[in-house]
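Incident log, entry 3
Record: DNA-binding protein (119 residues)
Problem: checksum mismatch between cached and fresh output.
Input:
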Amino acid sequence: MTPQELRALCLSFNAAVEDFPFNPETSVFKVLGKMFALTGLDARPLTVNLKCDPEDAIRLRTAHPGLIVPGWHMNKRHWNTVTADGSLPDRLVRELVEDSYDLVVAGLPRAERLRLDRP
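Fresh output:
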C-alpha cells in the first residue's frame, strides 16, 4: 500500500477528515473529531496506528509478529501499529483501517452516529 492509497482509504469513510494536530509530518484521520488512524505518510516503513478491539489486537499481534505491534505512543490495549508497506496483504490493512473507523463510530453518541447515516 502506498502512502497515497492509505490517505485515500482513510478519507473514503463518511465524514472522515485529515488533521495535523501534532506536526506537519503526522497525519491524523478523524471522524467527527475522534481519531481512528495516525500515520507519518513519509515514514519508511509506512506504518499506521489503528484502534482495535483488545482481544483482536492480541490475536493480530500473535499472528503477525513485528508487523502488527502494540500502538506506538498509544493505549497499548486498544491500539496497534500496523506496517502498511506491503509486508501484510493490502486487504488485511484495509480491513483493519475500516475496523478502526467502525470502532470509533460505535463509540460516538447516538445522535452523532445517526448524523453519519444520513445521506
